[in-house]
Design a protein that fits this description.
Blueprint lengths: L4 H28 L5 H14 L5 H4 L7 H10 L11 H7 L1 H11 L4 H7 L15 E9 L3 E8 L5 E8 L8 H10 L10 E6 L3 E7 L3 E2 H7 L6 H19 L3 E2 L8 E3 L5 E3 L6 E2 L19 H4 L8 H16 L10 H12 L29 H4 L9 H8 L10 H4 L40 H9 L3
Antiparallel strand pairs: 1-2, 2-3, 3-5, 4-5, 6-8, 7-10, 8-9
Length: 464
């Protein structure tokens, strides 16, 4: 009899342990199958059991090693299959965050760390890429395929410009919008407008840009008669800085004009509207000659050339440069391409094979169609160029009929016209503003506010 006692005690203990395991397993199953918690609990149960490669028994075995007082506390509060020993909390937080969130919400006690961690994913929080994350404030303008609004981001409270492009099922997304978005996503420079976000719905494609309050056209409207020479120098330097950046990446803007040069409150100039921009691959391909607003279109393109490079943009730079100093458009053609070419040749001279090799082979060049003009000095056409040091010489380097003679953006940055600017400007990182240099600032303009620029250009743009 006494010999049997030692054997009976282990058997009784084994029976109790089996009964305890069965009870806990049933509790575990009931909790895992609760309908209201199925979205989190079932995922957690599966992850925890499959991660170790074992069944539910492997989750219960650690109970054998927990002190008795911990077992009693656990029984009183109900079995929690997600509770881990202290040494495992960090691992669970990083590997199975959904399980922790489920536990916190069920207990009604959520730590501040978990609350901060989970709040950005709240369904009601504004998110990038969502139309309802931006509030439209006012309409800024409307074009043939897009409307631009001033807006406000609900994500960070900043002002933005919303370019809403209308989509049509038959035509799909306009290629200009696709081109603009794809190019701008890869361009990060202080003198190029920043693309914040892209929102795509069935009806619209919205490009969300940084908000810049005015453009060079409006700035010149408010200051007629020509800008302060120091301000011309700063605006031109920034324009060349932005162009040099994109040209080094084989990208042509192809639509340079004052309306597409944004001006911030501090005087930062930013290249915008890349709808006509193209990435020019090597070797070169041919492109459409229906690019660039008429007043800023170079003679080679007007004559039908489709084989061009960065020199296309540099003609536009020359026209804008003259306009900032003179206070009037350099070549304001009002009729057609023929009229535009006549205005150019009147100043620069009618080209010939001697002055422009290959001009006779261009599609629209007919010697008998043009009056033969001799070239003039630029100050004869635009007298204010003679009042600003080195301005006439720099303008003449841009306004060359023969494309290959035009000065590049990178070379122009080192022209004598900029000799009085602080040397530090040439060392700035791409994303740094020139106004981060303490001595650089805009000078007060003395012009009287009028509205001429927008109306006259609108009539020119509408034809082309």
């Amino acid at each position: 009899m006494c010999d049997l006692m030692p054997a009976a005690q282990p058997a009784e203990k084994i029976g109790k342990m089996k009964k305890l395991r069965r009870t806990l397993s049933e509790s575990f199953s009931r909790i895992a199958l609760k309908k209201e918690d199925s979205g989190f609990d079932e995922i957690c149960v599966t992850k925890m059991s499959t991660r170790s490669g074992q069944g539910s028994d492997s989750l219960i075995k650690p109970l054998d090693t927990i002190p008795e007082d911990r077992k009693v506390q656990r029984t009183q509060s109900g079995f929690d299959p997600f509770e881990k020993p202290a040494g495992q909390v960090k691992r669970v937080h990083s590997e199975n965050n959904a399980c922790i969130n489920a536990k916190s919400s069920s207990s009604g006690k959520e730590s501040p760390k978990l609350r901060r961690h989970s709040s950005p994913s709240s369904p009601t929080s504004p998110k990038f890429g969502k139309a309802d994350s931006y509030e439209k404030l006012e309409k800024l303008g409307e074009g043939s395929y897009a409307t631009v609004y001033k807006g406000k981001s609900k994500v960070n409270g900043k002002l933005v410009a919303l370019k809403v492009i209308r989509l049509q099922e038959e035509e799909g997304t306009p290629f200009t919008a696709i081109r603009e978005a794809s190019l701008l996503k890869g361009l990060k420079h202080n003198n190029i407008v920043l693309l914040h976000d892209i929102i795509h719905t069935k009806e619209t494609l919205t490009l969300v840009f940084e908000y810049v309050h005015t453009d060079l056209c409006q700035y010149m409207d408010r200051n007629p008669g020509g800008l302060h020479p120091d301000n011309v120098r700063l605006f031109l330097f920034q324009l060349l800085r932005g162009l040099s950046y994109i040209h080094q990446r084989y990208i042509l803007h192809r639509d340079l004009k004052p309306q597409n040069l944004l001006i911030s409150d501090s005087g930062e100039l930013k290249l915008a509207d890349f709808g006509l921009a193209r990435a020019k691959s090597v070797p070169s391909h041919t492109y459409s000659n229906e690019v660039v607003t008429l007043w800023y279109r170079p003679p080679d393109v007007l004559l039908g050339s489709t084989d061009y490079s960065t020199c296309l943009d540099m003609w536009g730079v020359g026209c804008i440069f003259v306009e900032m100093i003179q206070g009037a458009a350099a070549f304001p053609g009002m009729k057609d391409i023929q009229d535009q070419l006549e205005r150019i040749f009147l100043v620069l001279g009618t080209p010939s094979e001697e002055t422009w090799p290959g001009v006779h082979s261009l599609p629209h060049f007919r010697p008998d169609r043009f009056t033969v003009y001799s070239p003039k000095t630029l100050r004869q056409a635009w007298n204010k160029l003679g009042y600003v040091d080195h301005a006439e010489e720099l303008a003449s380097r841009f306004l060359q009929c023969f494309p290959k003679k035009r000065l590049s953006a990178q070379a122009a940055l080192h022209h004598e016209f900029f000799i009085h600017l602080p040397p530090r400007l040439w060392e700035l990182p791409d994303m740094s503003s020139i106004f981060s240099v303490p001595s650089v600032r805009l000078q007060p303009e003395s012009g009287v506010s009028v509205q001429v620029c927008g109306q006259s250009r609108a009539s020119s743009d509408s034809k082309h």
